[in-house]
Design goal:
There is one protein chain. By secondary structure, the chain is mainly alpha-helical. The protein folds into 3 domains: 92 residues; 122 residues; 132 residues, no CATH class. Helix content is 56%, strand content 5%. The strands form 3 sheets. A two-stranded antiparallel sheet has the order 1-2. A hairpin with an 8-residue loop joins strand 1 and strand 2. Helix 10 crosses helix 11. The longest helix has 33 residues. The chain starts with a strand and ends in a 14-residue tail after the last helix.
Length: 394
């Protein structure tokens, strides 16, 4: 830790470097030392999760600024813990650092819950993938016929395999509802060399999947309880096409639902990693790739943008189709994510529900361009186009 004391009245600026431990009692002693030194601002670098004990214990006593390690990077070749502390003190004293967003305690708890739900959901998906690999090893092609092998029909067939049944026709007859139309294909897919060894492994993974499902149910109940102060914001967000309750909860957990920390909607889009980057030198633009942002929010927005792009007669679907034809589907999805964030920022700022501009928004906004595009398409097909305006019936 480097304590920097600004010089005045012909006195030089002084810096004192000391070393402290990371145990709770040592951090509390550090806090007392900072108070005694009358420190007006503490600058600390965000490194993994190691910054959290220091930040949470110091924030009540002194102002703390958490900064991105990329913004406070020291000179290579001159980098040690001592030089880093002095460098952070100098940057902070001259106002060259920006503080990261550290939400209040209720939002931090909600963030822990939503991130845990995301991690467990991914772990559950990995268990399903491992079951598919075991089935492939046994020559069972169930996933080639059944869209979801964890559905009612799929689970019944997997249990039959574990129980030692070896008649594919009998197992295929366990199909329910729409799956019954695939019984001939299921009979073919369930023919293989399934052994008790495969059954043991699949049974183990199914037990893990059931445990994950129970944990997810508990998390959902806990999240719903924690969301009580933010239900109004969630209701606003779910009115946006493509944003589900889960995505809205992730949005609130990551941003805090307080848009006052983002001066404009563009600041929110840049923080989330959906705004084009700037990399220009000597008048030449080298790259406009989006900057790294909050990956949890970015992943949730990707799901929402994909759902919105497949919706019918909405502004987001029209925007996706308009950009995808020129720039490709990936850039179109990022553009839809950006538009969603802009809408969310304005809605949470003004307290208004989402009002869709409509699928014909771009046609109404630039009718001449739409007309020219339609004429060009017809002419490319070999037609001669003559336009006559409709008679005014008013």
């Amino acid at each position: 830790m480097c304590v920097r004391i600004q010089g005045h009245d012909n006195r030089r600026t002084t810096s004192t470097v000391t070393t402290w431990g990371a145990m709770t009692n040592q951090i509390l002693a550090l806090r007392e030392h900072l108070v005694e030194q009358k420190v007006t601002c503490v600058v600390m670098e965000a490194t993994g999760a190691y910054w959290k004990p220091f930040f949470y214990l110091l924030e009540d006593a002194v102002p703390v600024m958490l900064v991105n390690a990329r913004d406070a990077r020291n000179m290579p070749g001159r980098k040690t813990d001592v030089s880093d502390s002095a460098w952070l003190a100098d940057l902070g004293a001259h106002g060259l650092l920006r503080g990261s967003l550290v939400p209040p305690e209720p939002i931090r708890q909600l963030r822990d819950l939503t991130r845990a739900r995301t991690a467990i959901t991914r772990d559950r998906a990995r268990q399903v993938q491992r079951i598919e690999k075991i089935l492939e090893d046994a020559g069972i092609k169930l996933s080639s016929v059944a869209t979801d092998i964890m559905g009612v029909s799929g689970r019944a067939m997997l249990q039959a395999l574990i129980d030692g049944r070896d008649d594919p026709a009998v197992m295929a007859d366990l199909a329910k509802r729409r799956m019954r139309s695939k019984i001939p294909a299921l009979t073919e897919a369930l023919t293989g060399r399934f052994t008790p060894h495969h059954g043991f492994l699949i049974g183990m993974h199914l037990n893990l999947i059931d445990e994950y499902a129970n944990s997810l149910a508990e998390l959902d109940a806990r999240i719903e309880e924690t969301m009580k102060p933010f239900r109004a914001a969630r209701e606003l967000l779910v009115s946006i096409p493509g944003i589900s309750t889960t995505v809205a909860e992730v949005f609130i957990a990551e941003t805090g639902a307080d848009m006052s920390v983002f001066p404009t909607a563009g600041h929110l889009a840049s923080w989330a990693g959906t705004a084009p980057g700037s990399n220009e030198s000597a008048g030449r633009v080298k790259s406009t790739k989006t900057r790294p942002g909050n990956r949890y929010l970015k992943n949730a927005l990707g799901i929402a943008a994909l759902a919105a792009s497949r919706s019918e007669n909405t502004y987001f679907s029209a925007k996706y189709k308009r950009i995808a034809t020129r720039r490709g589907p990936m850039k179109a999805l990022v553009a839809v994510e950006h538009a969603m964030l802009v809408a969310a920022w304005n809605m949470l700022t003004n307290g208004d529900f989402y009002r869709d501009p409509g699928a014909d928004y771009f046609t109404r906004r630039i009718p001449a361009k739409t007309k020219a595009r339609a004429i060009g398409q017809l002419e490319s097909l070999g037609y001669r186009v003559t336009l006559e305006p409709l008679a005014d019936t008013a």
